[in-house]
Amino acid sequence: MPKHFNAAGIPNGYGNKSSIFILAGISFIMHIFLTILNKFPHVYNYLKPITEENAEYQYRCARQLIIMIKAEFMIIFTYIEWNNIKVALEKSSSLGTWFLPIVLIVIFGTLLIYIRKCLK
């Protein structure tokens, strides 16, 4: 089973069959952590000072950001896991050369959109 991919999406580290559960475990722990964190928006760091007038909007905006990031990471991890299985079964040879650029654009694009939205 591939357990590591280089920047081009080609596997360069392999492990045993049980290594497939590592990414699933990380995904599960991350999902639980972000779900719990989403319930406490008052502990986040904000770009603007929180006042009584903007608190509800800022908290809602931050919670939406966490929900979007969580969904994106679950999709990314599912895609990686799916491709790990395909590579192990020799039905594919890599994640694809566009995987890393697309992931970076999606994650940073989401962050930029929500930063801009929350600064209004």
Could you give the topology of this structure?
Elements: E1 2-5, E2 11-14, H1 20-38, H2 55-88, H3 99-119
Number of folding domains? 1
Strand content is 5-15%
Principal-axis shape:
elongated
Radius of gyration of CA atoms, rounded to a whole number: 18 Å
Low-confidence stretches: none
Largest sheet: 2 strands, antiparallel
> Which structural class do the helices and strands define?
mainly alpha
Strand order of the largest sheet: 1-2
Mean pLDDT: 90
Give the number of helices: 3
**Separation of termini?**
47 Å
How much helicity do the residues have?
55-70%
H/E element sequence: EEHHH
- Per DSSP E runs of 2 or more residues, the count of β-strands stands at 2
Keywords: Membrane, Transmembrane, Transmembrane helix
Protein name: DUF1648 domain-containing protein
Transmembrane segments: 20-40, 61-80, 95-115
Textual characterization of the structure:
The chain is mostly helical and 120 residues long. The chain has one domain (14-119). Helix content is 62%, strand content 7%. The protein has helices at 20-38, 55-88, 99-119; strands at residues 2-5, 11-14. It has a two-stranded antiparallel sheet. Helix 1 (20-38) packs antiparallel against helix 2 and helix 2 packs antiparallel against helix 3. The termini are far apart.
